[in-house]
Amino acid sequence: MSNAKLPTTTTKKAKGDEIVSGGNQDYVTMTIADQMFGIPVLQVQDVLGHQRITRIPLAPPEVAGSLNLRGRIVTAIDVRLRLGLSARPKDKPGMSIVVDLRGELYSLMVDSVGEVLSLSNDDFERNPATLDPRWREVSTGIYRLNGQLMVVLDVPRLLNFTNMEAA
Amino acid sequence: MDDLLSEFLTETNENLSVLDVELVRLEQNPNNPELLSNIFRLVHTIKGTCGFLGLPRLEKVAHASENVLGKFRDGELTITPEAVSLILQALDTIKSLLAVLEATEAEPPGDDLPLIGRLNDCAEGKLGGGGAPAAKPAPATEPPPAPAVAAAEEPVVASSGNVTLDELEALWNATPGPTSTALAPVTPDPAEEPAPSQDLVVPEPEPAPAAAKVPAPVEGGSSGGGAGGGDGGAKESAVAAQTIRVNVDLLENLMTMVSELVLTRNQLLQILRSQKESEFAAPLQRLNHVTSELQEGVMKTRMQPIGNAWAKLPRLVRDLAHELGKKIDLQMLGADTELDRQVLELIKDPLTHMVRNSADHGLEIPADRLRTGKSETGRITLNAYHEGGHIIIEIQDDGKGLAIDKIKQKAIQNGMATESELAAMSDQQIIQYIMKPGFSTAVKVTNVSGRGVGMDVVKTNIEKIGGTIEIKSTQGKGSTFVIKIPLTLAIVSALIVECAGERFAIPQISVVELVRAAADSEHTIERLKGTPVLRLRNRLLPLVSLQELLRLDDQEGKVKRDDDETFIVVTQVGTYTFGIMVDRVFDTEEIVVKPVAPILRHIEMFSGNTILGDGSVIMILDPNGIASATGEMTMGENVTKEATSVQAARQEDKMALLLFRAGEGAPKAVPLSLVARLEDVDLSSVEASNGMPVVQYRGKLMPLVPIDPGFMMGQEGRQPVLVFADGDRSMGLIVDEIVDIVEERLVVQLTAERPGLMGSAIIAGKATDVIDAGFFLTQAYKDWFGSSSSEAFEEEKSQRVLLVDDSPFFRNLLTPLLSVAGYDVTAVENANEALALCEAGEDFDVIVSDIEMPGMSGFDFAEAVRHGSRWSGIPMVALSSHASPRDLDRGRQAGFTDYVAKFDRDALLYTLQQTLSEQKGAA
Predict the structure, then answer these.
(1) Whether the complex's predicted ipTM surpasses the cut of 0.90
(2) Using one digit for the tens of pLDDT, what is the confidence trace for B434-482?
(3) Which residues of A fall within a CB distance of 8 Å from B605?
(4) What does the alpha-carbon distance between residue B741 and residue B763 come to, in Å, rounded to a whole number?
(5) Is A15 on the interface with B (CB under 8 A)?
(6) Which strands sit side by side in the sheet containing B654-661, from one edge to the other?
(7) Could you tell me the domains of chain B?
(8) B841: contact with A, CB 8 A cutoff
(9) Which CATH code of 2.60.120.460, 3.60.140.10, 2.40.50.180, 1.10.3720.10 fits the domain covering A24-166?
(10) C-beta atoms of B603 and A59 within 8 A
(11) CB contact B106 to A (< 8 Å)
C-alpha cells in the first residue's frame, strides 16, 4: 500500500510513543502471522535477514538466542512466542529488526519486514478493550490503514519479561 | 628515593595545583559549601600524609591552614580575599618546602612561625589587614613552578614520541595485506626511514598521543627522568616527570581496543587455518606476534604491585593493636607481585576487611596468648605470589582459629541451619557459614568488626572477579584465608567444549584436567542411583552432565549411553572438585568476556558470552554457578537455598525428628528443630523448687518435666534431658533414652486422646507417639502459652494455612499443631517470603501472621496483602504477644480479620475454625 501523505508537518518527533494530535509518525512495518505491526522508526537500528543464532540454554522460551552483529552480541527475541503465537514454521527463514534498549541490542525476529510508513495521528486509536491482554500489554495502540490495521509495538514493554512470568 | 615519599610528592603537587584553582574559585563564590569542603579535604589530606611521613614542618603549616579553613566551613569566619591570600601563601610555603624535600629528601631546617602565627590570628578572627601582602615568608614564589613544569614535560613527550614512532613503524612494517602497499616508499629506500616515519604520524594523529602516554609510566624514569633531572630549574616536578598520570578510562579504552584486535587476529588465524597455501600466512604470523606483544604491553600498563593495596595496612594494624590492647606483628611478603589494577581495586577493601578480622577476631589478647604458650605478640602474615594464571593471596594469623562451636550456635540462632543439619557437616562446611550474609560471631559489635556485614561481602567481591576464597582453620593454632584470583579480567583463556551440538567456553583457570571416558578407555562412568561418578586416581569424582544441567535436548534424538565416548572436564571451585561431562573438547581460545543481556542475568550457569574466532556467539560457563547448582553445600549455594527456603517449610516435606524412649509404650518422637539441646543431667544436682524438680542450668533454674506423670526420679546417676528453649526460658523434658535422629515425613495418622501427645505416626518403620512439646512447656511454665485444655476440633480437611512467623520455634510448634488439626500448613519466616509466595501464584484459605517481625511488620504485611494483592480477599489472623484493645484495633485497621494472643493455641484453633466457616458461609 502506498502512503499519500508526506511527512511535512512533523519536523520534530517526540521519542517513544508520545503521539501529538495532528502530526505524522514514521513506522517500520513488519508482518507476524499475517498481522501488521509497527515500531517507531527512530528506535530501529538495523534490519537483518536470516542469521545464525546461538541457542541459550535455560533462557526464557521467547529468547531465541544470541547473534553477532558486527562484533556486538545481540539477543534475539522470537516475537511470535512473545505474542503468544505458535512458532514460525522451520522452512520460512524470517527477518529481524534490531532495536536498542538502554544500551543493549535486541533482535526482534519477525516473519517479514515491510516498508517505512508515515502515518497521520488522526488514524491512531487506543487499544480496544477486548484485545488479547498479552497484546494489550506490549502495544500502545492501533493505526487504521486502508484495508488493514497496524499494531504499534512498545519496545521496552515487549522486552520486559518479568511481568509475564507472574501472569 | 623512597617510593612512599615520591608518591607523596606527586600526589601533593597535584593536590596543590587543584587547591590553587579551587581557592580562587572560592574567593569568587564564597558561599559554595561544596567547594569549601573539597578544599578542606585536600588540605586535610596533605596534613594527614605529612604527619604520617614524619614531616613536622609541613604538617604545622598545613595544620594552621586547615584550622582557618575549618572556621570558614563552620561559618565562624567569613571568607575574605585577605584570608584566602593568606592560605595561598601558606600553600606557596608548602610548595617551596616540597621543592627542598624533593631535592634533599629532607625538610629544610627552620620554621614558619610568622606565617603560622598569622594563620592562627586569622583563625581567631583578628586578621591584620596591612601585614598580609607585605611579609611573604615563602622562599620560592609563584613563578618558578610554571616553567619547571613546561621544561620537564617537554622531554618526556619528545622521548616517548620517539619510542612511539619506532613502534608504530614496526607495527606498520609488520602489517600484512593491502596496508603494506602504503609503505611502498619505505621498502625500496631504507635510508629515508626517519622521514616517512614522521609522515606516518601525521595522518594518524589519534594513536600517536595515545601510545605516547602509555609507554611512559612503564618505562619508569629512564629517559624522561634523565632529561628532567638534567634541567636545574626543574626541581619541583622531576619526580612527577618520571611518570605520567593517565586517565584510567583511557587505559580501559586502550585495553578494549586491544581486546578487539586480539579477537580480529583470532578470526584471521581461523580463516588462515582453513586455507592450506596462503600468501597471507607470513604477514599474519607477524601480525600475530605484534598483537601479542601489544597486548602484553597494554596489560603491563594496567599492572600494579599488590603492595599498593597493602600500603595502608601497617597503620591500620597499629591503630587496631592500640585500640584492642593486643600486640600485633604484621608481615607482608611478596608485596611486589603485580596484578591488574582493576582486580587490585576490587580486592583492596576485602583485604583490609580480612586483616581487620584477623586482628579483631583471630588474635587473642596477650594474656590469653601467654596462657596457651604462644608468644605475646600475635602475627598476621600477608603473602602474595603467582601460581599459574592466578595470584594467590594468603592472610594468615596465629590466633585462636575459628570457633566452630560459636559458628554452629550462631547459625542456629540466625535460623540458617538446624542442629541436625550441622551435625551432619564437616568442620570445613561449618566454617563456610561465616561467609553468609548476616553472620557475625563477634560477641559485641566493636567499631572494628562484628556488624554482620563482612565476610559475605568479601566473598561476593572476590567471586565477582572470578576468584575463590578458601578458609583453613585449626583450633588454637590460627586460621588462613587463601584468595585465588585471576591475573586479569579482560582477556581469559577458555576451553571450548561441545555438548548436544552446542558449544560452550569454560574458563581455563578453573579447569584442572581433561579425562576421556569410553568403553575402551581405562576410565568409565559409573552410576550411583543414577548419579554419575568417575573413579579418578583412587578418588570418586562427582560428575555433572552439562546436557542435563542446561536441559539441552539432543538434536539427533539419540540417547547417550555411558559407554559412549565422553569427555570429562575436571573443574575445581574452591575446595570442591567435580567433573563436567561434555561430548567433545576443542582447543583453547583467548576470549574477551562480555556481560550477557540483562534479561539473561538471572541464569547463574553463565558468567558471560563472547564472540569466537569464527564469528559465532558462545556462552561462557561459570564454574561457580555450576558448583552451586549441583548442590555442593560448601560453595555459594544461594540458588538452591533460595529455592528451598520457600518450599522446604511445607509441612509435607521431610522433617528431622528426634526419637527417644520415655515411659511405657511406643517410642516417642519430637521435631528436632524444637529441641534446643540434648543434655545429661546429674540427678544428684536436681533440686526441688515450688514443688517441681529443677536443675541449675547455664546460671538459671530450669524446670524438669517428666513425660510420664507417674515417673519417679532416681536420686543418683545421670538422666538424658531434652532442653526446649525460647528466648531466655528453658525447660527440660526427662526421657529414658535418646534413640536416634531420623529424617521423615511427619504424617500424624491417629490423633491422640492423651494430653501431651499429638498423635501417632509411622517413623523409621515403627508406630511412634509424636509428643506435643507445647503441652510440656505449659507444665513447666503455666504462662508459656496461656492455659491449655484439650478439646476436639472439627476437622477442616485440606484448608490451606499460611503461617508467617519469624521465630523458628513458633513455626515449628504451630506447624505440627495446625496440621494435626487438619490444616495444610505452609510456614515462612517473614512477610517478604509470604509475598513471594503470593507472586508465585500459591493460594491459601487463611493467613496467620505474627506482628513483631524484623523487616516488614505484620501490620505492613497485612496492608500489603489487602491493597492490591491477589490475596486481598483471604482472611488474616494476627498473632501477637500484645493483645490490648488498642492492638486489636490497629490490627483490624491494617486488615486483619482477627487477633489472637500468641500463646493461646486453643484460641488460635478456634479462631481459625470460625474464620474459615464464616468465609465459607459468605461464599
Answers:
(1) no
(2) 777 666 555 444 444 444 446 777 777 787 776 778 888 888 888 888 8
(3) 57-58
(4) 10
(5) no
(6) B737-745, B654-661, B668-671, B766-771, B757-763, B750-751
(7) 3-142 (1.20.120.160), 305-486 (3.30.565.10), 491-644 (2.40.50.180), 654-780 (2.40.50.180), 799-922 (3.40.50.2300)
(8) yes
(9) 2.40.50.180
(10) yes
(11) no
